[in-house]
Specification:
227 residues; Serine Threonine Protein Phosphatase 5, Tetratricopeptide repeat; mainly alpha; single chain
């Protein structure tokens, strides 16, 4: 598929309502985990198990598990309970930020991310989530700055690369969008953006078969929560 046709399909997919947010590349609380390939794992992350009460960590894991089962209401409740029990638990604050993002509550998501930054400024997942908040605010230049900075340290974070590509397309920067599209193919192979749905891609830039279903999560663009 020629890249320009891919851009047209992306533009068409911008307005499509999201059916779900499932899969590795989806906007989910799984974003709060440090991913394989991230260049920086802060000391605070390494010592979380020792410094955070066991019950708070259990609530955080229950939040992620509930979300994987499709129960976002219960997941949000567990994440909020975790931060109430352990106010310094920055991963749980990030999970609350994701819950706000899913609901279209961008100001509340920003406030949680500010708390995370004050607790652990080296925590890479928060940068990815912040980039998504910028994107859904329509602040595409800020999203590009945040997500490009993130990907220099964490090149395998698929959701960040996906929304960086979309931000660059919004700004008309086709060359850099092409670069990140190709990087996603190189780094992710068949896993790239698999949690998202855009129109089916038939032929990749190198002519090889490249059939990924991707999910353009756009209801926040229109002020509605992600279902």
């Amino acid at each position: 598929m020629p890249f320009i046709l891919f851009l047209m399909l992306v533009a068409a997919g911008q307005a499509a309502p999201a059916e779900s947010a499932e899969g590795e590349a989806a906007i989910s609380m799984e974003l709060t985990r440090t991913a394989h390939g991230d260049a920086v794992v802060s000391l605070a992350e390494l010592t979380t198990e020792a410094n955070i009460p066991k019950e708070a960590r259990r609530l955080y894991e229950k939040a992620l598990k509930a979300e994987r089962k499709g129960d976002r209401v219960r997941a949000r409740g567990y994440a909020l309970a975790a931060v109430e029990l352990a106010p310094a638990f920055f991963q749980a604050h990030a999970a609350v930020a994701v819950a706000h993002l899913q609901a279209g509550e961008l100001d509340a998501a920003d406030r949680e991310l500010d708390i995370v930054a004050s607790l652990n400024p080296q925590y890479l997942p928060a940068r990815e989530i912040r980039g998504l908040v910028h994107f859904f605010r329509g602040n595409f230049r800020e999203a590009v700055v945040e997500l490009e900075g993130l990907l220099k340290q964490a090149p395998c974070r698929e959701t960040g690369r996906y929304f960086l590509t979309r931000s660059l397309l919004q700004l008309g920067d086709v060359a850099r969008a092409r670069h990140h599209f190709e990087m996603a193919k190189t780094l992710g192979r068949d896993k790239s953006w698999r949690g998202f749905r855009l129109p089916e891609l038939g032929i990749g830039l190198d002519g090889a078969s490249f059939r990924h279903r991707t999910n353009a999560i756009s209801p926040i663009d229109r002020g509605r929560p992600i279902p």
